[in-house]
Amino acid sequence: MVKPTSKHADSESGWQLPGGRAHAGETIAAAAVRELFEETGVRCHIAHALVIDQVPADEDGKRAEGYDIVVEGSTLTTSEAAAVTLPESARAELSDLRWVPLEQLDQLAFPRQAGCVKAAVRAYSYGMRIPLYRLGRPADAR
Hints:
By secondary structure, the protein is an alpha+beta fold. Helices cover 26% and strands 20% of the residues. The chain has four helices and seven strands. It has a three-stranded antiparallel sheet with strand order 3-2-5. It has a two-stranded antiparallel ribbon with strand order 1-4. β6 and β7 (137-138) form a beta hairpin. The protein is globular and about 45 Å long.
């Protein structure tokens, strides 16, 4: 999970999954691959969603209603996972990166983020995956 510099920097909470917005014309899978690489340096294959979370607009009107999509990525080996560090290029946006054990999720992430992660873990454990398509064709990305 990553810790944004702009929000809750002085709080123990506020950890979230790497992510961001898709660019115009970019598939969900391609956006997920790009955002994951930009924020963690990890490159992986993405072809499935695990959770789709509808997020209402902010009361102040700064953020429109939208959807957060938790996707399934490639599995890293133990040594690959140990080598993951916050890229220098992400340090203006993120203050830290860490692997968060599920038992610490409620204390480190806000309830909405923790709920999505737990639902994604359950979906993955039951083999429940939603294929990512665009115009009737697979839109997976590497």
